[in-house]
Amino acid sequence: QVQLVESGGGLVQPGGSLRLSCAASGSIVSINLMGWYRQAPGKQRELVATITRGGSTNYADSVAGRFTISRDNAKNTVYLQMNSLKPEDTAVYFCNAGVQQATWGGYHPYWGQGTQVTVSS
User: Fold this and answer.
1) Regions of the chain short of the pLDDT cut 70
2) How many Cα atoms occupy the beta-carbon half-sphere of 76 within 13 Å?
């Protein structure tokens, strides 16, 4: 089985910064796409940012220029550096990873349990 564990959420004032981490563990041969999503109360889960194994990134327009996604392939870990946070960034943040568990197998998506980020004065 595969587990994704997020950390780094919390309460921060507008304009502040937070760094989220998500570590994948378990039966893992390879991970291709990794990403962060968020879900605010009463809203659908939305894409925040993704990163390929080779380091190509993609960001939602609402966070481009403020958030930076990165990964450490050796540690099966993805990070999200969030700067210039706004109240509208308040949400539960989930990480996602496409995981290959066998050399002859395909990639399957796994989700973390989520970490709360609250931006408020």
Assistant:
1) none
2) 19
b (16+ CB within 10 A) / e for 64-76:
eeebbbebeeeeb
Q: How far is CA 51 from CA 36, 78, 89, 110, 118, in A?
A: 9, 9, 20, 15, 24
Cβ atoms 70, 82 nearer than 8 A: no
Give the pLDDT confidence of 29-42 residue by residue, as tens digits: 999 999 999 999 99
Tell me the two tokens of residue 5. Answer: 């564990």
81 Cβ contact list (under 8 Å, min separation 6)? 17, 19, 67, 68, 69, 70
Is 108 within 8 Å of 31 (Cβ atoms)? no
